[in-house]
Amino acid sequence: MATPASISDAATTTATARWYRRFALPERVLHALLMVTFIGCALTGLPLIFAAKPWAEALAHLLGGFESAGIIHRVCASIMIAVFVTHIALVIRRAIVGKDLLGILWGPDSMVPQWRDAIDMYRHVRWFFGLGPRPQFDRWTYWEKFDYWAVFWGMAIIGGSGLLLWFPFFFGNFLPGWAFNIASLVHGEEALLAVGFIFTIHFFNGHLRPEKFPMDTVVFTGRISEHELRGERAVEYARLQATGALAQKEAAPPSFSARAFGWIVGGTALALGVVVILLILYSVVF
Ligand code: HEM
Q: Of 169, 193, 236, 183, which Cα lies nearest the Cα of 38?
């Protein structure tokens, strides 16, 4: 079965395929909020770094001026911090209420890098060069774990330095003046790194890999087709089948409107990301 190339193709495919739950509602909502606020912070922060470039002034003007861009930046930053805190709270709840501390730290549902990830990466690189068969993955691939931890530590660094810049009088009570210079440097550099990573590597993984192109809507609909689950995550599929958990994960096909929503939101994010990367490249080169 070929990967659907459009929403209408997908609608035809959904009628015949089985679908499974991959992301629960809270995970989808948190991802959507993170996505929107990250793009908001990038669009309102980058004009400060490239303030001398005509596009930066035009973009700030479009957002209501530099002052209003600063307000939007802080609103997006506050929501982003709330998303981070909520995520940590959900992990703690899973450990205590769900009694699943072990599952968080180890095993197929854990985001903690494991020996198997190193082997998967080695096999994947071999496959890239045609030196071996394509590896089969479990619930989380090694690059998904990399993305997760990059965002996790990036949030701590970018959020921590951003709060210092936001509340200098408060933090000035405990910190020396040079800490604010460092915070300003770290915030800007980490922002560039994060924007560069998310808008190229992360977007490539979600949209531009041949088997995903032009759009993977799983993070919006929360559902993955049997075709994709078996093809991409054969280890997870076999494990769920062996334990009898597969049937419990079966879900109704994603509705047309859910997929259309994914295409519109994902497509808009992709377009904005490409524009931002081009603007950064242009500013660095010229
Ligand atoms: C998560 C919490 C964050 C907080 C609390 C925060 C806070 C701030 C503050 C207070 C400033 C100074 C702005 C001004 O003076 O108007 C700033 C600048 C900036 N922010 Fe953020 N921000 C956060 C996240 C982000 C993210 C995620 C990005 C990028 C995707 C970003 C990119 C930038 C950039 C590029 C600047 C300009 C830095 C410079 O002038 O060198 N920020 N941020």
A: 193
